Amino acid sequence: MSVDTLPKTAAPEAGNMSRLAFRMRDYGIVAALVIIVIALSVSTDTFLTSGNLVNLLDQTAVIGLLATGATICIISGVFDLTASATLALSAIIGVQVGRVTDVYVGMLAAVVAGALLGFVTGTVVVRSGVNSFVGTLATSMVYRGLAVMVTGGAIVYPLTASAETFGMLTWPSLFGLTSATIMFVVVVAILAVVVSRTTFGRRLYAVGGNAEAARLSGIRVGSIHVTAFMISGVCSALAGLILASRAGSAQSTMASGMELTAIAAAVVGGTSILGGEGAVWRALVGALLLTLIGNGFNLLGWDTIYQQVLQGLLILFAVTMDRWLRKRTR
Question: What pLDDT does 6 receive?
Answer without folding.
Answer: 42
